[in-house]
Structure formats: C-alpha cells, structure tokens
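Fold these two proteins, one after the other.
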Amino acid sequence: MKDHDTNIPALMATIGANAKAAAAEMAFASPDAKAKALSVAADAIWAGRESILSSNALDMEFGRSKGLSAAMMDRLELDDARIQSIVDGLRSIAAQEDPVGAVIDGWEMPSGLHIDRVRTPLGVIGVIYESRPNVTADAGALCLKAGNCVILRGGSESFHSATAIHACLLEGLHAAGLPEAAIQLVPTRDRAAVGEMLAMTGVIDVIVPRGGKGLVGRVQADARVPVFAHLEGICHIYIDKDADTEKARKVVMNAKTRRTGICGAAECLLIHKDIANGLGQQIVDDLIAAGVEVRAEGVTGSVPADASDWGKEYLDMIIAARVVEDQDAAHDHIRNFGSSHTEAILTENAKAAARFFNELDSAILMHNASTQFADGGEFGMGAEIGIATGKMHARGPVGAMQLTSYKYCVRGDGTVRS
C-alpha cells in the first residue's frame, strides 16, 4: 500500500461501499472464524516484527522532521516489548467470549410472547486516530470481534507502521475466510479523507476519534454520524488527609511518570490542606526530584501555578498541584476542570472513598490506584478502541462488547393482539 494522490471522494466511496457489503457478511461470521483471524494476525505481527520496526523507523524519522513533542514521539515508537503487547492484546481478544448473539435479557409477557434482547453488531465503524500505531491492531481486532467492519484512518505520523500492521490483520482475515474489507486502512495521508468519513451517512454507523483535543473537537463539530468521543485525559488525583504515606508516594509517581504521553497520565494533584506541609510537600518534592515540573499553588513546586494550569492536559513531565480546603473543594475542582475521563482518591478512609465514587461522575473513578490503569487491557478487555468520556451508549474503555448494540427477538405461537 502506498500514499495515494488520487480522487479522495472516489477513494472513500469505494472503501465505504466495500465496508457496507462486508458488514452484511460479518454480522453472522462464526466465533471460530473471528478467533482464527485474530490468532493468525497475532502470529503474523510477531513473525513480521522486524519489518514493522523498520516501518516504524520511517515514521519516527517523519515525526522528528515534524518536530513532534517527546510525548508524541513516545506514543509513536514501537519496540519488541510494545509489539509483544500488541500480539498479547490480539490473542486476548481472540480468546474472549464472542459478544454477538448473546442474550442480554429475556422475559415472558402475559400476551404469550417471549422476548429476548440480543447483542448485535453496530455495522460499520470509522476510527480516526493519531500517532499510536497499536490502535490499528486494537481497533481492527475489537471491531472484528464484535462482528463489525471498520475503516481505519491513522495519523500521518504512523502511516508506515499502521500499513505494516494492517497487512498482518489482512493475513488473518484471509486465513479465516472472512472478507478483507472487514478491516480497511485509508491509504493516504490526505486530510480530505477525514472530511469524507465524517459525512459518510448511510455507510458509517459510528465514528470513534482517538487523539488530541483538536482532532476530537473537529470530529464532534463536523461529523454527520454518531460519535464516541475520546476527549482529553485531564486526570486528577486527590490526596486525602487520611492517605497512607507510602501508598500515596508510590501511586502518584507511577500515575505521572510511568508514561507521560498516555491519556491516563495524572495531570493535576489536589492536596488536602491538613497534609499540605507534610505528605503533600513530600510528594511534590518526589516528583521534582524525578524531573517533573510541578506548577503549584499552596505548596512549594517548581514554579507557581496560574489559572491556565487548571484543566490542562500536559502529556509531558509537568503536573499541576493545588492545596484544597477539604474533599468538597476537591470535588468542585474536578467538576469545574475535569474532562470526565479518570480521577483517583488516595485515602484509608472508606467513607471518603465512597463519597468520591458516589458524588463524582467521570467515566473511571479509582481508589488507591494509579490512573495509568485507565486502559481497556488492564480492565480485562484485551485492548480498547478508546476511553469514551460521553454518556451515550459506551462509556470508559470501549472494548468488543461496547461495540455492539442489541435487537429484540420476539417469539409467539400464532399470538395476536386483542
């Protein structure tokens, strides 16, 4: 596959028609065929890892020429360990129970009807993403598992890596006798392809944007098809006055520094005033010693915070920190500046943790755990297509089950309505 300089509307129309035709076949593809396609694809990715890494090297060179940030370069880079993670994700999804056809609920009516609510594929899913080449495998696999077809439009930075990974997914489809149009990668860097996807009503049933605020904002503003929004990961950690010292120090360090460029990285610390001069300052000092720039209010950080530091996704070795009066003030800050992605409370007080879970409404809430666990793989989904921060249909990590809808299957015996 190469980067096309062609008629983009015609290209996308062909891709859309092929996806629509394949969707009818994928809706009743057998669980065994889907599992085989994913297993063969996993084997192909591992066997072809040298070629994938060579392709990724071209993307890394392209990223450097574009001046991508260190965090974005980290998202883009592949190595043996990350390829192994992709392979493990595919195998995990292959081994999962097939969601299609599962009876969610069933009941009898006085009329004599038996009604089942049954999981069914969404149809054709469009995924628009930036930088991270693993999304090619994750999104392709999850859509396939749920009986959907998918049109993948990766970022220009990951063009070569995505193409190499996609070729392995096609090997799996071919081996399983499934239509290759079930997983299509848009073969161009031309941004006009995104505009075409957003207008493909009648073909694409839902769009999933996965990237920065600019990408997601454009998709939400311009899409004429439904959107599963994966917005910013402005993740907060509230350090309660009853936090355990060692747990809190360990969790905060991991949440900020393990990987700064992922959406689950902590971006703001909220510190109860009663521990500001003790544990709170100690944690800030830990972060500074690890090379993190702490933009602080109420504790001594690297630099003073200003109004622009609240509600900001840094995706870098930078974090905001603020001393708050109490838990109510922490909740208010999160409601005002959060992105409804992931928040954590560090405390040994069960009532405080229960209040945190009950009173906040982000997609993921955590107690005494790193926000870096905000990931479909860590939730047992094998992988994720994104973290949905809206409230319609899917929320939080979007795995195969979340990529289904349902239908009602109604059985009677010559039953008529009086």
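Now the second one:
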Amino acid sequence: MDFKTFVFYFLSAILLFAAVRVITARNPVHAVLYLVLSFFTAGGLWLLLHAEFLAIMLVLVYIGAVMVLFLFVVMMLDINLERLRQGFWSNLWVGLPVAVLMVAEMALVLTGRYFGAEALPTPPPQPADYSNTKELGRIIYTDYVYPFELASVILLVAIIAAVALTLRRRKDTKYTDPSKQIAVKRNERVRMVSMPAEKE
C-alpha cells in the first residue's frame, strides 16, 4: 500500500466517523462541529483527486462561512433536545432503507473491480501548466451552461421563498408610509389658531 492510498483510507475513515457522529450526537453544537470535521476531510479527499479549487471552495465557503453561521445559530437558539428526539424512532422505517441503499451503492462502487464490474478509467496525467479551475469554468459555461443557469434560478427561487416565509409584519412596531407622507396637504399639517393678545 503506497502513501496516497493510506492517506485516502485514513481520511475516509475520519469522514465516515464524523458523518455518523453528526447523526448520533446528542448535542447540536457537537453535531455541527463533527460536520465541520467531515467537510474538512472531504476537502482533503478532493486534494487527493487533484481538484484543488473544489477543495479550497469547500473549506472557505462551507467551513469558513456556512458552518460558522450554523454554529452561531445553534448556540444562540434555545433548542429543546428532548423535543428533537421525540420523532427519531418513528421515522426510522424511512431512514434505515435509505441508509442501507446508500451503503450498498458505496460498497458497489468501491468493490466493483473485484466482482467483475468495469473499473473507472484512470485520467491521463496533465501537463505542469494545467489549471483545473480554468477547465472547470470552461466546462460549466460551455457544456453545462443550461443546468448551471437552471440551478441558479432554483437557488434564487429558494432564497425568495425563504424570505417570504419568514417575513412577518409586527403590529407593535412603528413605521412610516412614504406614500401617505407625500399625499398630505398643508391644511392637514398646519392649523392656524387665533389667540387674543395677553394683557399685562
């Protein structure tokens, strides 16, 4: 076993352990931290596949921004752990077949070469000036431009739907209506009062 294979199995073991702990951890903060660990080890696997841009984006975007936001939200919210665990066993009949199917698919991919399945072809070595970021951009904006645009539209619709679902108009807040401010007349704002002069 060479060093690259050892690093692959080592990172894969950490990734599987962290993914299992994300589901089984009782504390939500610990679950988020295990998710950060799983993303970090997934970035290491991307580096082994010579996809440096994807690994850096996974670390910067997911760990540096999204998961830090999740961690702050989980730590600031008062989460009732007993209420979260109430529906765990009732949904097990749905989650267990899906988990078994995913494990079977991963086992088939990893052990397919030993059971007569055709192995994935090894990519040819690239020259020294090869840039996978440039190649990824070229493929996204030429061959996969319509799926990329469709995914961006779906994300935009999801953002608008999230804002619309969480927008609540509070009754106890004071706010001004600019259209009503513009439509007022002088007689509604100023009232002339005639008062007699004071005598000494």
